[in-house]
Amino acid sequence: MFTAQQYVKAATLEEAYTLNQKRNNVVIGGGCWMKMNHRRYQTLIDLSGLGLDIIEETPEEFVLGAMVTLRQMETDEALKNTFGNGFYEMTRHIVGVQFRNCATLGGSLYSRFGFSDILTFLLALDCEVELAHAGRLPLAEYAQMPYDRDILAKVHILKNGRRAAYESFRQTATDIPVLTCAASVLNDTLRVVVGARPMRAICMEFPFPETEEAMEEICRKVQETVSFGSNLRGSGEYRRRLAGVLCRRAICSLKEDAVC
Ligand SMILES: Cc1cc2nc3c(=O)[nH]c(=O)nc-3n(C[C@H](O)[C@H](O)[C@H](O)COP(=O)(O)OP(=O)(O)OC[C@H]3O[C@@H](n4cnc5c(N)ncnc54)[C@H](O)[C@@H]3O)c2cc1C
């Protein structure tokens, strides 16, 4: 467990950002990941007083604060009505309800874990992150950036009619995933995202497949193009095979008339 000399509940995002520029200070989200390290911090910066724990909906977009928990995303009716089961599917396997009541969207995206269910699914949607200092940028760009000392304040998700589906595979329930896969479609363009490779999730786009053969061809391309690594949860070759299966399942869920 980490320790800290001082605790500050930030009154403004600017205050949090300024404090976070010191090397030994740190922002805390849900603290679920941080509690696993043994570091000694100077100041713990708490964002919980900044009203960043709400999910807002406008006609154009959803705006999720960084302190929104995984459980909020899992159970939010408006997200479900707009994006189907994806938010539920990306969160429901993560540890347990008590854990998901603490772990936050901000902590999850900032960490950009190579095994992240959250990053995989959100990359399939049209998302921008809003950072305290750098402003808004596409999630796909943020996902590739190195860690820095900016603060993730909000996530904007466009309501543009994109349909999305999410699949993951775990060796045992509640473990971290061996492989994750999301697929989404907008204007006849299919986006496939593969994560837990076990590297950061990667996106690819294809024309939406109208036939079984075209779908199989896309799954083959995903298997051939994406690089997969090995760790104690599975070999690269095992992941490559899984990618074909999960990719097919995710695309099938997007085909309203499909019998897959
Ligand atoms: C045992 C365990 C199992 C897990 N299994 C899975 C899984 O199966 N799938 C999955 O996708 N994830 C999994 N996770 C990750 C989890 O879902 C969260 O992503 C993780 O706990 C981080 O969220 P947090 O709110 O706890 O962040 P914290 O632990 O509070 O912070 C994590 C990091 O993010 C930084 N940070 C936090 N908030 C912000 C912010 N707003 N701006 C900038 N930096 C910030 C912190 O400084 C810290 O460096 C697991 C985690 C644990 C501990």
Q: What structural keywords apply?
A:
alpha+beta; Uridine Diphospho-n-acetylenolpyruvylglucosamine Reductase, domain 3; Enolase-like, domain 1; 3 domains; five-stranded antiparallel beta sheet; four-stranded antiparallel beta sheet; 10 helices; 12 strands; 33% helix; globular; binds flavin-adenine dinucleotide
Describe the structure.
This protein is of the alpha+beta class and 260 residues long. It is built from ten helices and twelve strands. The strands form three sheets. Strands 4-5-8-6-7 form a five-stranded antiparallel beta sheet. The chain has a four-stranded antiparallel beta sheet with strand order 9-10-11-12, with helices on both faces. A three-stranded parallel beta sheet has the order 1-3-2, with helices on one face. Strand 4 (55-57) and strand 5 (61-65) form a beta hairpin. It is globular, with a radius of gyration of 19 Å. The model has no long low-confidence stretch (mean pLDDT 97). Bound molecules: flavin-adenine dinucleotide. The site of flavin-adenine dinucleotide has 30 residues, from strand 2, helix 6 and helix 7.
